[in-house]
Amino acid sequence: MSVKENLIDLLESIDKEIDLAGRKKDEVKLLAVTKTVDINRIKDIKEFGLHEIGENKVQEIEEKYDALKDDFEFHMIGSLQKNKINKLLGKIKLIHSLDSLSLIEALDKRLASNNMELDGLLQVNISKEESKSGFYKDEVEEVLEKMQKYKNLHILGFMTMAPFTEDEAVVRSTFRGLYELKEKMASKKFDNVNLKYLSMGMTHDYKIAIQEGSNILRIGSKIFGERNY
């Protein structure tokens, strides 16, 4: 199937899940994950009103930025190495993968020195998988309290990845855990924090993510097909 045919099917499926969950369509954003996808195929999604794309690597953002910057806003959804921060500044709308205090500090410092600001999401390792980075749930409140020290990097929510498993209960528990954490932290007052985004749900688990409160879906393969990384 073509990108356009895939998107028609996907958008219909997302709308159906939103209706079943009793949510509003404008509550859920589809972020097209364009890792390894060439520029012309990315441009095919524009006619569907999609203007935000997610990339995993700084190098790919650099390679695609000039050709796509007039039509798309970039999100950084992969791990960011501190030595690549400068290459990213000014090119992204949102970073989903703030997974350590050292990265937060380095990014804020670099933003301040360039007189720039950026929004980001804390990556939370709800399931405590050793293979995944991110803050554990019981570390998040302390991190949010420390955000008052930083003036150029602003926290707008959380991101997580569920375990890759056929066990729907495990996936649901992960997403529900992040939603409950967001609700608990939103009831408190932190400077430089506005918890409005939950980035969770990918090609294989986006339906459960919608049911459990996600408002940013990171979907690539269901749009562009399976890719060899």
From TrEMBL:
Top-level taxon of origin: Bacteria
A GO MF term: pyridoxal phosphate binding
Residues in Alanine racemase N-terminal domain copies: 22-227
InterPro entries, A to Z: Ala_racemase_N, PLP-binding_barrel, PyrdxlP_homeostasis
Keywords per UniProt: Pyridoxal phosphate
Chain positions with N6-(pyridoxal phosphate)lysine modification: 35
Cofactor: pyridoxal 5'-phosphate
Functional note: Pyridoxal 5'-phosphate (PLP)-binding protein, which is involved in PLP homeostasis.
Family under the similarity heading: Belongs to the pyridoxal phosphate-binding protein YggS/PROSC family.
PANTHER family assigned: PROLINE SYNTHETASE CO-TRANSCRIBED BACTERIAL HOMOLOG PROTEIN, PYRIDOXAL PHOSPHATE HOMEOSTASIS PROTEIN
Name assigned to this protein: Pyridoxal phosphate homeostasis protein
Organism: Fenollaria massiliensis
Taxonomic path: Bacteria, Bacillati, Bacillota, Clostridia, Eubacteriales
